[in-house]
Write a structure and sequence with these properties.
9 helices
Length: 268
């Protein structure tokens, strides 16, 4: 009982500390950034966005291809193989694209961001900013969170495009599905709600990845071991939060859709 009590208390204290840190980030976003902050944000957008495009596109392509390979036998047995276009696009745009992009960014960018900020904390660069009356959250965390917020939906679009292309390549050129039928059902099954659902999820995932990575970097322990532990915790925490947010947003957005269009429930 003592162990579980200490664990729960530690979890509550950590959650409260994170909420306070997150509120400071939101306050920094509302206050805006100075010239240094804008330059730092552009640098982070390049590192997070441009350098992540190849791995995100490659991941999207293979996931889309594997999705069709696994789904084709069941759909073919039911005589619905031509409907794979709709299933592929819906699955990639609403679920697979945003989630996988978030996970890839949490591993590639979140860890690097945590390591960078953690090293700055260990070498007392963050304390040096405070001694110069500068707000380290506004100077260091806000540009990184904003870069994640902007670039995650853009990278999700790249992942979606390559995922759909990978599914189309396997469906049409390997499984022999008619090209016109594939794209017909792909267009029929997708509307603006489907696209917006994926992009809204990506926005929340990007915000979570940036905030968690910065928090773990600011709170990491001393030495190389502390930085390494903070990087691991940042990825694991981001991964869990992405899964939770995906579930919550799926329920919330589906209910909103049903309320706005009661006679047209969302497909899948």
């Amino acid at each position: 009982m003592e162990f579980w009590g200490k664990t729960c208390l530690s979890l509550v204290l950590t959650l409260g500390d994170f909420v306070r840190f997150f509120v400071a980030i939101l306050a920094g976003l509302l206050r805006g950034m100075d010239r240094f902050g804008r330059r730092e944000m552009l640098s982070q957008m390049f590192d997070l966005g441009t350098l992540s495009i190849p791995v995100v596109m490659l991941t999207g392509f293979f996931i889309g291809a594997v999705l069709v390979i696994e789904a084709y036998p069941q759909f073919h047995a039911l005589g619905l193989a031509s409907r794979l276009g709709s299933v592929t696009v819906l699955s990639v745009v609403k679920q697979i694209g945003p989630v996988l992009t978030g996970v890839m960014l949490a591993g590639r960018v979140g860890g690097a961001m945590t390591a960078e900020l953690g090293t700055m904390r260990v070498t007392e660069q963050i304390e040096a900013l405070r001694s110069m009356a500068a707000d380290p959250v506004r100077t260091l965390a806000v540009p990184r969170v904003l870069a994640c917020l902007v670039m995650t939906p853009i990278l999700t679009v790249f992942s979606d495009i390559l995922g759909i292309f990978g599914g189309w390549l396997i469906a049409v050129h390997v499984q022999g599905i008619n090209n016109d039928q594939f794209w017909h059902f792909a267009r029929v099954g997708v509307d603006i709600y489907t696209i917006n659902t994926g992009l809204i999820k990506a926005l929340f995932f990007g915000l979570a990845i940036g905030a968690i990575a910065c928090y773990k970097g600011f709170r990491c322990g001393n030495g190389a071991q502390g930085v390494g532990r903070a990087c691991t915790e940042a990825f694991v925490s981001s991964f869990i939060v992405i899964l939770i947010l995906n579930l919550v947003l799926a329920l919330l957005l589906t209910n909103i859709y049903v309320m706005v269009w009661p006679n047209q429930p969302p497909i899948l």
